[in-house]
From TrEMBL:
PROSITE patterns attached to this UniProt entry: GLYCOSYL_HYDROL_F22_1, GLYCOSYL_HYDROL_F22_2
EC number(s) on file: 3.2.1.17
Gene Ontology biological-process entries: defense response to bacterium; killing of cells of another organism
Name the record gives this protein: Lysozyme
Region (Disordered): 154-175
Keywords: Antimicrobial, Bacteriolytic enzyme, Disulfide bond, Glycosidase, Hydrolase, Signal
Polar residues bias (residue ranges): 154-163
GO molecular function, one term: lysozyme activity
Pfam families in alphabetical order: Lys (PF00062)
Domain (Glycosyl hydrolases family 22 (GH22)): residue spans on this chain: 93-111
Family: Belongs to the glycosyl hydrolase 22 family.
Signal peptide per UniProt: 1-22
Length: 201
């Protein structure tokens, strides 16, 4: 009887995870388009988000992993279970863990941005080891056919208002040019700060 219950729990758990309709972004460019569609805040490093997603979930929204210690990670950003709750909204992001496994990444992105504002990219160990100081993906995404733009320094960069959580509200009318330009300019600025810090030390 006890063995039967264990098997039943495993089957139900497997069904709950596998019945969620996820999506894998076949190309980096498709992922970038979706991130822009769901309004990743303009002041965050777009290339760094793409790198993080590729390294932790291989661009798969239904990615689900369990560490040897039993810690669970969900979705495109591999968000730990402390930020969500099974079967009903909860955790630090007040979201259902199952909702992090479907093909709608708006709630996933909102939760990931909240983590970023509280902890920074360093919260994801994989980002520190595989994305930090690596601009390869950042440079690559600007080669996407419909995402190309010119770094014209005379072009204005839109500044978006912030909500009470400190997360920028993206306007639907913001140009793709402004979004991508802001991202790469901030990446360059970050490197200048690091260089100045090295000279000082």
């Amino acid at each position: 009887m006890r063995l039967t219950r264990v098997v039943l729990v495993l089957v139900v758990s497997y069904y709950c995870v596998c019945s969620v309709y996820g999506k894998k972004y076949e190309t980096r460019c498709k992922l970038v388009r979706e991130l822009l569609r769901v309004s990743v805040p303009n002041d965050l490093f777009l290339g760094q988000w793409v790198c993080l997603i590729e390294k932790v979930s291989n661009r798969n929204t239904s990615a689900y992993t369990v560490s040897p210690s039993g810690k669970k990670f969900y979705g495109l950003y591999q968000i730990p279970s402390k930020w969500c709750k099974l079967q009903k909204p909860g955790g630090d992001c007040n979201i259902k863990c199952e909702d992090l496994l479907d093909d709608d990444i708006r709630d996933d992105t909102a939760c990931a941005v909240k983590i970023y504002h509280q902890e920074g990219f360093k919260y994801w160990t994989v980002w520190t080891t595989r994305c930090k100081n690596d601009n390869f993906i950042t440079n690559e995404i600007y080669k996407c056919p419909d995402l190309r733009f010119s770094l014209d320094r005379s072009s204005p960069v839109n500044t978006q208002p912030q909500n009470r959580h400190g997360i920028h509200k993206s306007s639907e009318n913001s140009s793709l040019h402004s979004i991508l330009k802001r991202s790469i300019l901030q990446t360059l600025q970050s490197h200048r700060v690091e260089e100045q810090s090295r000279h000082i030390n």
